[in-house]
Amino acid sequence: MDILTLLPFIVLIGAMFLMTRSAKKKQAAAAQMRNAMQPGTGVRTIGGMYATVKEVHDDTVVLEVAPGVHAIYAKNSIGAVLDDAEYNRIVHGDDDELDADGTIVPDDASSLTGEPDADKADVAKIDLVKDETADNDAEPEDAAAKDVKDAKSDGKSDGDTDTK
């Protein structure tokens, strides 16, 4: 056998080995993360629910999803173990970084409907009211449009002609 004939098979086997190796590393890191859970830490499930760990068992975890509401989940359903700062930022809305500059952004559109500022008062407002006189005085632009208008005024519909 020639080495060039075996080369595609060797490359394919090498690629498969590298892919399974990286997948095993990810699985091991996820298992280590799940085993490191302690009661009181915040977690996110694979479904996207945020909760606090209350009890850790061999294959299950008891999560507090709301004050006084406990649910039992499989350990494999934990997607991420969050540190305290991130958990509080997501669940409770605590955001120390944004509070540092002191700017307050309202949650509704009330700031958009207030009185205009003095510098915005100079802007001319656009009149969106339809001008009735412009429509009555308008003439058809070309002869074809005028013929259509005359034909409709004679009581003829689109398909009627003046055949005799």
Number of strands: 5
Largest sheet: number of strands, sense, barrel closure: 5 strands, antiparallel
What is the terminal-to-terminal distance? 94 Å
Q: Stretches where pLDDT falls below 50 for ≥5 residues? A: none
Explain what this protein looks like in three dimensions.
By secondary structure, this protein is α+β, with helices and mostly antiparallel strands. The protein contains 5 helices and 5 strands; from the N terminus they run H-E-E-E-E-E-H-H-H-H. The protein has helices spanning 3-35, 84-91, 96-99, 132-137, 143-153; strands at 42-45, 50-56, 60-66, 69-74, 78-82. A 5-stranded antiparallel beta sheet has the order 4-3-2-1-5. Strand 1 and strand 2 (50-56) form a beta hairpin. The model has no long low-confidence stretch (mean pLDDT 77).
